[in-house]
């Protein structure tokens, strides 16, 4: 009886802390609760409105790439972080709109928490109202880069593409960006903690 009470108490404490544990289905439990993060508090994401396949989960995944590699499947709208033992953490993503998609191999040059967003000049030409952010938009809950950004470089230098968070959780699963790969804020925080600088990123 005492052991049962202790187990119940531990489970309750994990739930209150918003920890992400893995359920029998591979889905991460409590992955999208409200989360205090530095100076900001991320609001909870209504999980019932996110399609099951786009929720963070552990899946079977066979690849010749080594653990720690990031593989982006733009067609399926999945990002995989390769683990040992033929498994991966899978996240739902939003990808580039028609005409803005890309593929190739890059590396994570560096990472930033609560990054500043600076729209590139071609984007400002398409959307002149963004000119006010030419010097950079301050970090925050409405910043398009969200809570984290991983900056992708290749042999030619900065690709201009990022793996980043977004406050627009409802856009996951769509062709919505100008080429960057976006994740829900709670997911990019999780990925950020897993990915090491220099990690290989493959976009298919």
From TrEMBL:
Species for this entry: Oricola thermophila
Keywords of the record: Cell shape, Cell wall biogenesis/degradation, Glycosyltransferase, Hydrolase, Peptidoglycan synthesis, Signal, Transferase
Similarity section: Belongs to the YkuD family.
GO cellular component, one term: extracellular region
GO annotation terms (biological process): cell wall organization; peptidoglycan-protein cross-linking; regulation of cell shape
Active-site residue numbers: 164 (proton donor/acceptor), 180 (nucleophile)
Protein name: L,D-transpeptidase
Molecular function GO terms recorded: glycosyltransferase activity; peptidoglycan L,D-transpeptidase activity
Keyword Signal: yes
